[in-house]
Amino acid sequence: MRVDVPPMGEGALIERMAARAKAIGQLPQGFVVAEGIGDDTAVLQVGSHTLLWAADMLVESIHFRLDWIDPASLGWKALAVNLSDIAAMGGAPVGALLSIALAPEYTGTWLDGFTDGLLECARAFGVALLGGDTNRAPWMVIDVSVLGMVEGAPVLRRGAQVGDWILVTGALGASRAGLQALLTGAPNALDLTPHFRPVPRLQAGARARALGATAMMDLSDGLAADLPKLLRASGCGAIIRLSQLPIHPLAHRWATATGADPALFAFLGGEDYELLITAPPEHARRMLEQLPAQTGVALTVIGEVTDTPELWLEHPDGTRTSPPAAGWDHFQAHP
Description:
Elements (H helix, E strand, L loop, with lengths): L9 H12 L9 E5 L6 E5 L2 E11 L11 H18 L3 E11 L6 H17 L2 E9 L4 E10 L14 E5 L4 H10 L9 H4 L5 H9 L4 E4 L4 H12 L2 E5 L7 H10 L3 H6 L7 E5 L1 H15 L3 E8 L4 E4 L5 E2 L14
Parallel strand pairs: 4-5, 9-12
Antiparallel strand pairs: 1-2, 2-3, 3-6, 4-6, 7-10, 7-11, 8-10, 9-11, 12-13
Helix pairs in contact: 2-3, 2-6, 4-8, 6-10
């Protein structure tokens, strides 16, 4: 069936579906949708329990290539990207469902390796694989859904306040560097682990929530794409200081070798799966003192939230420019 609708981006598509979903009737008594479509997870209040519900899909030739990634790493990544959404709310995972469609030739040894990687990730972060579905398809589709929970209120992406500091965990740009190495036929030029096996920042997210984060989201599409989403949701703008970005050594190495600006390369990266956090200065200072010591994860201040809607990049010489267009959109063409 051909649908005659003008092409739209991913954001517009989600908004279109969300508007229609509002017409659905109320949930059963005792269930409250505390946060629906538009954040890293849905948030359900069930009695005294706050549940988090996330889902992410990986599609062959869109998100991965089977000649690039080994089955165990793909299994790890399929679960890890969902756990990152739970981390962004300050929650803890409980269980996961896996649905996978694949060609028959991948149902033997390949599937064993994939399952090994997924279960390795599940054990590492205390998640139970509870069920799912399988099907046959000419190309692979992997869909994982994770249920999590949080004690108290989760951290939403719409809570940033003017004057908040903007922080990120870890370092940026390594996954993009790995992808560029693959795309240019140089897979041995860099360590591809950050691209193939992201580490969800569950402990860091929980500590950031406890230490007073006002807004949080994970950097799945990269800082350049994800920060504007948080700012729009919060009705704010921001200044990002490029000189303060924590650039991963692999990103710095690749950018330098290819003549790119390392800070802009990291800013434009994707699939870092680090956490983007906002907090008032007094809470941010406490995070900087406590979170790295308690979790082993670095934390860096990269800017602040402003009262104007614009996002500005501040360069080392003090000049400010608008950020270049960037970010991943599943319904737009990409090189």
